[in-house]
Amino acid sequence: MAAEWAGPVKRWLKGSESSDRDKGATLEFRLIYEGALSSGQGKHAGPKEKHEFRRQLHPQLRELWRQDRHLKHYGEAHLSGKSGPTYLEHIAKRFSRGGTGFIPLITEATGYWCSLNVLFLRRDMPGYVVDNYGDLDNRLKILFDALAVPTTTDGLPSNADGDENPIYCLLENDRLITLYLSFRIGC
After folding, report:
1. Fewest Cβ atoms closer than 10 Å to its Cβ: which of 29, 101, 110, 144?
2. Considering the entire predicted model, what is its pTM?
3. Contact predicate 131/138, CB 8 Å
């Protein structure tokens, strides 16, 4: 099933003469999240928080798919000729959770992965990295989970509206994040 929609991605990656992947091709963009990021403990925890995070990034990623010259044709190209579902509709159906479709940018089928550069801004004084919201490593785990297609329907609305179905997200799963992680804390 994955090969059905992975084919066009490979054509995009290969280019005309040699593989862009071999040339170290990258797609760089910035996603901005504004809000508290809990550690998954206590009253700030849970799947609903992760979904709120996805909801804030959804319009940014949807716009990337609409504007990027390599991605935008997936919303128009059909799996079989000139009719049937588009590639994006197929992806949303493949990554459906409880009636909500998800369109991850990075999937195992494409063979790509994601590196992150996280800028974590806080208003606290130096020395307060661990506070009421919990440990920094747990917060990063919440962040990574929220960047990916959810594994369950927990926290998902039972009736997602048209603008949020499908939901564009960054990753099929958080295993696609590389070991390279640049993390800065600033105020």
Report:
1. 29
2. 0.75
3. no
Q: What is the pLDDT of residues 112-171, one digit of tens each?
A: 888 888 887 766 666 665 555 557 777 888 888 899 999 888 777 666 555 688 999 999
Angle at 68 between CA 67 and CA 74, to 5 degrees: 90
- The string of DSSP letters for 64-116 reads HHHH-TTTGGGGT-EEETTEEEEHHHHHHHHT-BTTB-EEEEE-GGGT--EEE
- Per-residue DSSP letter, 125: P
Residue 68 forms part of a structural domain: yes
Q: How many residues does the chain have?
A: 187
Q: 136 in helix, strand or coil? A: helix
> Token digits for 71?
């991605």
For residue 166, give every residue at least 6 positions away whose Cβ sits within 8 Å of its Cβ, in sequence order, or none: 88, 91, 92, 100, 101, 102, 103
Quote the domain boundaries for residue 101: 2-9+40-186
